[in-house]
Amino acid sequence: MKEFGRFPVRDFLDELGSESPAPGGGAAAAMTAALGAGLLEMASRLNAKRIEKKSGSPDPGAPARIGEAEKIRHRLLELASLDAAAFEEIARRSAESREGAPYREALKNGASVPLEICGLAARALELCADERPRTGKWLVSDVLEAAILFDAALRSARLNVEVNLKELDDELFVREATSRLDAFQKSAAARLSAVTDTGA
Fold first, then answer.
1. Long-range contacts for 65-69 (Cβ within 8 Å, ≥24 apart)?
2. Which residues constitute the domain of residue 165?
3. Is residue 17 in a domain?
4. Is 116 inside a domain boundary?
5. Domains: count for the chain
6. Digit-coded pLDDT (tens) for 90-105
7. Residue 7, in any domain of the structure
8. Residue 29 burial by CB count (10 A; 0-12/13-18/19+): exposed, middle or buried?
9. What is the tens place of the pLDDT at every residue in 147-169?
10. CA geometry: angle 136, 141, 26, nearest 5 deg
11. Which CATH number fits the domain that encloses residue 82?
């Protein structure tokens, strides 16, 4: 499995633009969300530094927020690679047979990876909403951009979940995955609105 998190940006984009179908949309969605997480981390660190300098005492919640954003970023980089590997497994199983458990399990994994990307993007949007009130005027655009990237990543990764769900005959798995997608989307829409509200 290629570790895209260790690739130079140019090399990853060369891979993405090649005739190979993997990495594809799921990996791109993960990388998009990872960019958002990096921006959120930066804003959170600078906000914490500014607040501590102004008040004379550390922001007690800052380490947890920064740590979670960093953890999300690292996991998203892993998911970019896992998504490409999941697609390759689906293609391999499909060439053998589209009947039976191996192909079904490959499809489930192919849906589960971008589903996790959606969940992380939705959670990161919650962190953006928490960070927004602490953000000074010079960093507002960075938090807004991070939120937009998370929303775009969620919407993009959802497409990759759904394309695999369409091939599955496991009604319970499809129903549960769709329910989680809808919950992520609803939460993300509310948080995006909170972050982008100029009155916030």
1. 65/127, 65/130, 65/131, 66/41, 68/123, 68/127, 69/37, 69/40, 69/41, 69/44, 69/124, 69/127
2. 23-195
3. no
4. yes
5. 1
6. 999 988 888 889 999 9
7. no
8. buried
9. 999 999 999 999 999 999 999 99
10. 130
11. 1.20.120.680
